[in-house]
Amino acid sequence: MERKPYSAGAVKFSFWFMEFRKTVQLLSEGKSFADIKKLNEETNIYGAPTKLRAQQIYSTVTARIKTLDESFYPIFLSSDLATQKLFVLTAALLHDTLFFDFVYEVVREKMILGSDELTDADIRIFFKNKQEQSEKVASLQDYTLRRLGSCYKTQLYEAGLLESNRANSTRKILKPILDIAFEHWLYDHDLGIMVKTLTGVR
């Protein structure tokens, strides 16, 4: 997988599952990305509250979709809800390397060790380590890091990997069982690392 420069952009992003699914549906019907962009500008297909938010949803969702080979469209559309959410999470992780590292280094490691709890302390330690490794992360304010951690937890909850999204500091990790077609697709497209990331194996 391609590693991108670390970014705190996730503070502005949501999981955007319905928007992702709608976009894949339109692409599978033969619409181009340019067609969808125009449609969004003219009819606000995502039901966004402002024009700026509509543009942000389009640019983020399509950037995530483009991290995956288009052969995923039919598999995604014929999959159950849980698998569709894991496809969306995979695209979000490929789009955001800092988010990927968080899931790979913290959530996956917890699953490997048999621990099913994610705490705010785990998140703080992750960012502290990253600040020592990266000037970009070191330059981020504590407020931004707290928001990033909160965004990561929310996206993992919406993807089905965390049991709760309440404001308490401990969340139960839910280890997913991958659909066989999804797992095969990942391996066939050199994304075996995502199988390890999502299921907690070395």
Could you describe the 3D structure shown?
- The protein has 202 residues and is mainly α.
- Helix 1 (17-28) crosses helix 4 and helix 5 packs across helix 6.
- The protein folds into 2 domains: 12-66; 88-199, Arc Repressor Mutant, subunit A (Orthogonal Bundle), CATH 1.10.10.
- 64% of the residues lie in helices and 3% in strands.
- It is built from 11 helices and 2 strands; from the N terminus they run H-H-H-H-H-H-E-H-H-H-E-H-H.
- The radius of gyration is 17 Å and the shape is globular.
- Strands 1-2 form a two-stranded antiparallel sheet.
Give a brief rundown of this model.
Helices cover 64% and strands 3% of the residues. It is mainly α and 202 residues long.
Provide tags for this entry.
two-stranded antiparallel ribbon, DUF1819 family protein, BrxA, Arc Repressor Mutant, subunit A, BrxA_sf, 3% strand, 2 strands, mainly alpha, 202 residues, 2 domains, globular
Provide mean pLDDT, rounded.
96
Number of DSSP E strands: 2
Q: Element order, helices and strands?
A: HHHHHHEHHHEHH
Tally the helices. Answer: 11
Q: Based on CA inertia axes, which overall geometry fits?
A: globular
Distance between the termini: 17 Å
Which CATH first-tier class of the largest domain would you pick? Answer: Mainly Alpha
Q: Which parts are unreliable, with pLDDT below 50 for 5 consecutive residues or more? A: none
Fold topology:
Elements: H1 17-28, H2 33-43, H3 51-65, H4 72-78, H5 81-95, H6 97-113, E1 117-119, H7 120-133, H8 135-138, H9 142-159, E2 170-172, H10 180-188, H11 192-199
Antiparallel strand pairs: 1-2
Helix pairs in contact: 1-3, 1-4, 2-3, 5-6, 5-9, 6-11, 10-11
